[in-house]
Hints:
The chain is mainly α. Helix content is 75%, strand content 0%.
Amino acid sequence: xxxxxxxxxxxxxxxxxxxxxxxxxxxxxxxxxxxxxxxxxxxxxxxxxxxxxxxxxxxxxxxxxxxxxxxxxxxxxxxxxxxxxxxxxxxxxxxxxxxxxxxxxxxxxxxxxxxxxxxxxxxxxxxxxxxxxxxxxxxxxxxxxxxxxxxxxxxxxxxxxxxxxxxxxxxxxxxxxxxxxxxxxxxxxxxxxxxxxxxxxxxxxxxxxxxxxxxxxxxxxxxxxxxxxxxxxxxxxxxxxxxxxxxxxxxxxxxxxxxxxxxxxxxxxxxxxxxxxxxxxxxxxxxxxxxxxxxxxxxxxxxxxxxxxxxxxxxxxxxxxxxxxxxxxxxxxxxxxxxxxxxxxxxxxxxxxxxxxxxxx
Length: 361
């Protein structure tokens, strides 16, 4: 295969994976906010339903993959499951639960901007766990993102402190979440490089971790609500179940695309690849949802994006001068190569390793 064709195929494949993440991420963001506006004020119950559906879809996908490949899927021991998977599952469920909960209080634009601060927390925990190397330019990155967040929230007409703190806490936990996810999926001995296997093992612990919070905050009001358990007609119940099922499918697609990006690149790359997605989200939020943003808010958003873009440039620059670690070279799983994504020859595989050296470092 000629070099230009190989480059084009790799580019289209990468762009396709990123766009897949964009579609599910933007879709579930607007879905969650829209569902809250319809009067369904039970975000934790909604999240539990999504987790249950994601587990079922992951189990079905694993079975289909086993029938297709003839290989037995990985099943972790209880020791590895509780000691190595549980921290990631707990951080993930708190991140998702708090994020969905915040939609009761804040707009999509404020949610999107505050969630951008997750890059700071991912960077912090990556430094703590030595997934990233210290760099003096990172101070500039931190100042730009923090200043942009302050400018975006300063004198905002649709600012809500409770919702803002929820998203900020979710971003902090999200930094732990994606850093642990990167470590978890790049440990070859666990065999969770495949995103479906990772989601299959994470969902039960995520459900159990969020269930006590649901019981404390929503159980009583939901049991007396006419949305589900006190319906007088069948059609509204079926409609509600249908809407929750759509969210579950979006959640599975989002989880799959997120884990696919993390396993093939890194947790920081996942956040950085969301720059254009966040711009699209803000534009759609102002045009479709009626979110109001001043010139100062837009300027703050631009400053924040500059900080993230600077970090992208620094990562690319420094990765070109250093070799990837042994763990990074061994982190890629052949099972992540779907039939349409599998390299055709050794030359294409070598090019993939060269590309991974930049993204994974």
